[in-house]
Design goal:
TIM Barrel
Length: 325
C-alpha cells in the first residue's frame, strides 16, 4: 500500500500515453499550440507497462489513461490488452475527446474498460468548434451516443469558461436527463490556454451551482467517496446526475489519492507543481519493477500538502496537454 507523507492512501494513477492531441482546446493550450514530444522522448509501450506494473505492485488499484488524446498514439489498444491482464488492477478508465474512439468501442467492451470520460465543452456546434478550434462536433456526439448504446459508463466533462460556454450549463443538465448520464462541470484551470490566470476566475463552483439551482428545484447531494474531486447531485424526478469539480478552488486537495505520470515518464505528485521525477532514463537503464519501486515510494513521501502549498513553492507553467489533466 502506498501512503504519502500526509497519511493519504495513494491508489489511483493517471497515466498519460501521449501529449499530442488532434484538438487545440482554448483552456488546454495556447492558440499556436505547444511543442509536442518526439517519439524518442516518450516512454515506449514496454517502459510504460513496466512503470504501470510497478505502481500496481505498490498498491495502485485504478489507472486512468489520459493524454493529450490517448487514441492518437498507435499501439494503445495493444497496451490496454496487456494492462488488463495485470493482477491487482481493479479498474482501467479512459479520458478522451471521443473523436477517434468509435472504431475501438467493441474491443474496449470486451476488455471491460467501460468507464469513459468524454471532454465535451458545448452542445452547440459553433461554440464547440470555437472552443476546440476544430470541426469534430458531429463525430464526437455520434460516438457518445454509440458508447451509451453499448452500455458504457459515460461521464461528460465540461470546462466552464466565462464568455464562452456558460449558456451550455442548462442544456447539459437536460442532456443528463435525456440520456441518463453524468455531466460534470469543471472550474477553468489557470494554465496556458485561454485562461486568465489564478486571479481571473469568474465562474467558480458557487456560481455554477447557483445557476443550476435557479432553474431546477429538488437538487439532492449524492454520497461520494472521500477522495472524489467532484461534488455530485441528482435532481428530483430527473434521470442522470451532475457534478461540479472545483479544480481551481481545490476544495478536494486534503483527500487526494492520485498521482500522475506524463507520457515522457515524469511522475508528478501534484497537479499544481512543476516538480517531477523522471523515469525515462531509469527505465531504459534498469527495466525492472523492483528497481523502479523505491524511486516511486520516495517521491510519494515528499508530496505537497495541497495545491495551494504547491502553487506557493513552485511556478506552474505546463500546458494541460503535457500532464494528462
Amino acid at each position: 500500500m502506498l501512503i504519502d507523507n500526509h497519511n493519504r492512501v495513494i491508489n489511483y494513477l493517471r497515466l498519460s500515453v501521449t501529449d499530442n492531441c488532434n484538438m487545440r482546446c482554448q483552456y488546454c493550450m495556447p492558440e499556436d499550440g505547444v511543442i509536442f514530444s518526439t517519439s524518442k522522448e516518450l516512454l515506449s509501450w514496454e517502459e510504460m507497462f513496466l512503470l504501470a506494473t510497478a505502481f500496481i505492485e505498490l498498491g495502485i488499484k485504478k489507472i486512468r489513461i489520459t493524454g493529450g488524446e490517448p487514441f492518437v498514439r498507435k499501439g494503445l489498444m495493444d497496451f490496454l490488452h496487456r494492462l488488463a491482464t495485470v493482477d491487482g488492477l481493479e479498474d482501467i478508465s479512459i479520458t478522451t475527446n471521443a473523436t477517434l474512439i468509435g472504431e475501438h468501442i467493441d474491443a474496449l467492451k470486451k476488455l471491460n474498460i467501460l468507464n469513459i470520460n468524454v471532454s465535451m465543452d458545448s452542445l452547440d456546434k459553433a461554440r464547440f468548434n470555437a472552443i476546440t478550434r476544430r470541426d469534430y462536433f458531429d463525430v464526437v456526439l455520434k460516438n457518445v451516443h454509440q458508447l451509451l448504446q453499448n452500455g458504457f459508463n459515460v461521464k461528460i466533462n465540461c470546462v466552464v469558461m466565462g464568455g464562452q460556454n456558460t449558456d451550455d450549463i442548462i442544456p447539459f443538465i437536460n442532456f443528463a436527463n435525456d440520456y441518463n448520464v453524468d455531466v460534470r462541470f469543471l472550474e477553468e484551470m489557470p494554465f496556458n490556454g485561454h485562461s486568465k490566470g489564478f486571479d481571473g476566475l469568474e465562474w467558480d463552483y458557487v456560481k455554477i451551482m447557483g445557476l443550476i439551482q435557479s432553474q431546477f428545484p429538488g437538487i439532492r447531494r449524492m454520497q461520494s467517496a472521500p477522495s472524489s474531486t467532484s461534488e455530485n447531485y441528482t435532481i428530483e424526478n430527473r434521470k442522470g446526475s451532475f457534478g461540479i469539480i472545483p479544480s481551481f478552488s481545490r476544495t478536494f486537495c486534503g483527500t487526494c489519492n492520485r498521482v500522475r505520470v506524463s507520457a515522457k515518464g515524469e511522475l508528478q505528485t501534484c497537479l499544481y507543481t512543476n516538480e517531477s521525477v523522471s523515469f525515462k532514463k531509469l527505465l531504459s537503464e534498469n527495466p525492472d519493477t523492483a528497481l523502479i519501486k523505491p524511486f516511486i515510494y520516495a517521491a510519494i513521501q515528499s508530496r505537497f500538502k495541497n495545491g495551494f502549498e504547491a502553487e506557493e513553492k513552485t511556478a506552474f507553467k505546463k500546458s494541460m496537454s503535457l500532464i494528462g489533466g
